[in-house]
C-alpha cells in the first residue's frame, strides 16, 4: 500500500468513527406519561413534572425521553395503551391523577416501575402493600382527593350559608373515583343535613347537558368531583357555572383561577413535581418497593372574590380568615 493511500484511509476512518460511535450509543430510557386529560390545558403540570425530573438530574431530550399519552377522558383506551407500554418495555410508567390509569398499569405489569398519583388510599386500591413499604413495582403519591370531599362540601355550605340542595357532578368513565366521591359526599351530606343529587358527565357534550339540567333544576350549588378529565375542562366548567349563575366548588386552585367560586384540595402542580422526582429516582437506580408512598400534607382553600360578588354572595369573615382570596 502506498503511503498516500494509507493516510487517506486513516482520514476516512477518522471521519466515520464518530458516526459509528453515535449509532451505537444506547437509546435514552423512556417514561410513559399517562394522563386522563388533554395536552394543552395540562402544560403547567407537564412543566412541574419536568421540574421534578430535573431535581434528580434528568432532562427530557438529553438523558431521558418522555412519551405523553393523553386519554382525553377515554378510559377505555387504557388496556391497549398499557399493553403497548409493557410490550416496548419502557423504563417507567407515570400515571398522573387517575386511579383507573394506575390500576390498569398495575394489572399490566409486575416488573416495570410505576409512579402513580391517586386521590384514594393506594393500599385499598391494591397498588401497594403498605405506605411505608410498597413492596412491589409501584409507588407514588396519595393526594387525598376523596378524603377531603367532606371538608370541601362543608366549606361550600358555610360559604353559601343557607344551602339545602347541592348537585354533584361525577365522571362515570372514571368509575373508582366516581364511586368513592359519591359515597364520601353522600355521607357528608347526611351529617350536614343537606340533600344531594348525583349527575354523570364523561364528555364535553355531557358536561354541557348536565349544566343545562342544573339550570332548570336550580340547586343551591354544584360540587365538581376530582377528576383529571374535569381538570382539563376547568375553563368550560367555570364558564358554565358562571353563565348559569351556579356557585361551584372544585378540588384545586386552577379551577378558581379559571373563574370558579372556590376550591379545597392539594396543589396539583406540586404533586406532578413529586411524581417527576420519584420517576427520576427510579431511573437513577432506586426501586419502587423502597420508596415510601408520599402523602400530601398541605391543603389550599381558595375563593374567587369576583365570582362571589357576581353571584351576590358575601364571604363570611371566618372564611376570609382561612382562605386565599383571589381578587
Describe this structure in words.
By secondary structure, the chain is α/β, with parallel strands linked by helices. The protein has two domains: 30-143 and 267-295, Rossmann fold, CATH 3.40.50; 149-265 and 300-326, 3-Layer(aba) Sandwich (Rossmann fold). 44% of the residues lie in helices and 18% in strands. It is built from 13 helices and 13 strands. It has helices at residues 3-23, 43-55, 78-87, 99-108, 149-160, 175-192, 204-217, 228-232, 234-243, 253-257, 268-283, 305-310, 317-320; strands at residues 30-35, 65-70, 92-96, 114-118, 138-142, 165-170, 195-200, 221-224, 248-250, 262-265, 294-295, 300-304, 324-326. Strands 7-6-8-9-10-12-13 form a seven-stranded mixed β-sheet, sandwiched between helices. Strands 2-1-3-4-5-11 form a six-stranded parallel β-sheet, sandwiched between helices. Helix 4 links the parallel strand 3 and strand 4 (114-118). The protein is elongated, with a radius of gyration of 24 Å. The termini are far apart.
Helix fraction?
Answer: 40-55%
Name of the CATH first level of the largest domain: Alpha Beta
| Number of beta-strand segments | 13
Report strand %: 15-25%
Q: Distance between the terminal alpha carbons, to the nearest Å?
A: 83 Å
Structural class: alpha/beta
Strands of the largest sheet, in order across it? 7-6-8-9-10-12-13
Round the Cα radius of gyration to an integer and report it.
24 Å
Separate helix tally:
13
- How can the largest sheet be summarized? 7 strands, mixed
Shape: elongated
Low-confidence stretches: 6-23
From the coordinates shown, what is the CATH architecture of the largest domain? Answer: 3-Layer(aba) Sandwich
The CATH H-level superfamily of the largest domain is Response regulator
Query: Domains counted in the coordinates: how many?
Result: 2
Instruction: Output mean pLDDT.
Output: 91
